[in-house]
Amino acid sequence: MPGEVLSQNEIDALLSALSTGEMDAEELKKEESEKKVKVYDFKRALRFSKDQIRSLTRIHENFARLLTTYFSAQLRTYIQISVASADQIPYEEFIRSIPKMTILNVFEVPPLDGRILMEVNPNIAYAMMDRVLGGKGVSVNKVENLTEIETKIMSNLFERGFENLQEAWAAVAEIEPLLTDFEVNPQFLQMVSPNETVVVISLNTQIGETTGMINICIPHVVLEPIIPKLSVHYWMQTSKKERLPEEIVSLEQRVKKADLPIITELGSTDISIEDFLLLDVGDVIELNQAIDVPLTVKVGEIPKYAAQPGQAGKKFAVQILDTLKGGDEDGK
């Protein structure tokens, strides 16, 4: 780890202190050689690297854009959703950080194990429901008294919105989000052990004039199988997909049936624009091609063969005499 850069005045003061005996060089060396101990809190075990957290942030930035589009279409009002932060904390700390009464949507994401929690601030949830019911998007926080109709409207809205996570995660895992539980009291919801590390992605959300947060809580058990795919090396590498034998055969058959333009040049010449403008029916243009010189056959503008003219039945034809150099498969 690089040390702190000293100014020239600090360097002069340090040299002066060493020369006058105020500081001992041996003591400085001893302090440098001592092991530096860093306090580690086992309750806040960091199980994800910064690189992996950045990858999760990128994935959910895409998810936030998809949610913005989805809710804009559903609510017909101004919607803005963006990633505010991504942190790894104990599950217990996350539960303490959200309101005592809030909107909790629990999703399974097969084939991955575990469940993902999407917590929606009541101000946001009620503003969305008000818009669905034809209102202006006014928020009234009475989450502890949700009716069955309100519960159904909210759960349906967030269930369809969370389906966008499937597209956002497509690069790392093929998941099928499924809403399994809808709760309003975090104390009644125990997805994992209190000390389990979870990644919390917080989304700044604005519905018209109402603002709030949407938090997505992802336990370590869900991400464990796909952790290698969250590294920079995975995102940077290019995977080469091998074709199946039947795909190769099918491709060859389609290529063989493709039409190619075949052009035989009888010759060419140069004339002036004046002569060109005076051309009329019956005029003869002299070509620079001798009769005893083979004609050039082009395939897709590329000279490919040498041929001689002739007749096949009642139609004009050419007979291939040779393959031209430079007319190979790469088109050179």
TrEMBL record:
A molecular-function term among this protein's GO annotations: cytoskeletal motor activity
Cellular component annotations (GO), alphabetically ordered: bacterial-type flagellum basal body; plasma membrane
A biological process term (GO) from this entry: positive chemotaxis
Domain of life: Bacteria
Alphabetical UniProt keywords: Bacterial flagellum, Cell membrane, Cell projection, Chemotaxis, Cilium, Flagellar rotation, Flagellum, Membrane
Matches recorded under NCBIfam families: fliM_switch (TIGR01397)
Protein name: Flagellar motor switch protein FliM
Gene (name only): fliM
